[in-house]
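can u do me a favor
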C-alpha cells in the first residue's frame, strides 16, 4: 500500500485544474499547481500554488525535481512526461492520455516531427479545441491511475 501520493500540475496552460481538484479532494491527495505566473486559484491544506521564475522550463524543472515514485504529473509537455516516467511517476495529459514507457518514445518523435513541420511552414500548428469528452477522459484516467497506485 502506498503511504502518500501527490499530484503535480504543469499549470500554466492546464485546462483541467478544476477536475484535478475534484479528484484530489475526494481522495485527500495533495496537489501542487506549478506555473511561471501568478494564477488566481484556491490554495489550502491540500492545494499549494508554486510560482517559479520566468523561463521556458522552470516549471518543468521544479516538477521533475520534486516528483517521486507513485506521484502523478498532469502535463501536455511530452519531455516533462518523460522525465516524470524516469522517476517512476505517472504522467497524464489533460485530455486523459496516459504516458508510459511503451508510448513515450513515439510521443517524443511525433512532437519533433510536428515541430519540424511548423518550422518549415508545412503546418500551421493549430491544436484541436478542448472538448467535453476530453474532460471526461481525463477524469477517468486520473481516477484509474489513483486506484492503481492505492492498490499496489
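np, heres the sequence
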Amino acid at each position: 500500500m502506498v503511504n502518500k501520493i501527490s499530484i503535480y500540475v504543469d499549470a500554466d496552460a492546464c485546462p483541467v485544474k478544476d477536475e484535478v481538484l475534484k479528484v484530489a479532494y475526494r481522495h485527500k491527495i495533495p496537489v501542487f499547481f506549478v506555473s511561471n505566473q501568478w494564477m488566481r486559484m484556491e490554495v489550502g491544506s491540500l492545494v499549494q500554488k508554486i510560482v517559479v521564475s520566468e523561463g521556458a522550463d522552470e516549471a518543468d524543472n521544479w516538477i521533475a525535481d520534486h516528483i517521486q515514485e507513485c506521484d502523478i504529473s498532469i502535463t501536455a509537455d511530452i519531455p516533462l512526461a518523460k522525465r516524470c516516467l524516469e522517476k517512476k511517476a505517472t504522467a497524464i495529459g489533460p485530455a486523459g492520455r496516459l504516458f508510459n514507457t511503451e508510448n513515450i518514445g513515439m510521443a517524443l518523435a511525433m512532437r519533433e516531427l510536428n515541430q519540424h513541420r511548423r518550422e518549415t511552414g508545412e503546418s500551421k500548428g493549430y491544436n484541436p479545441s478542448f472538448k467535453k469528452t476530453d474532460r471526461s477522459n481525463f477524469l477517468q484516467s486520473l481516477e484509474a491511475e489513483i486506484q492503481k497506485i492505492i492498490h499496489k
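DSSP finds five helices and six strands in the chain. hope that helps!!
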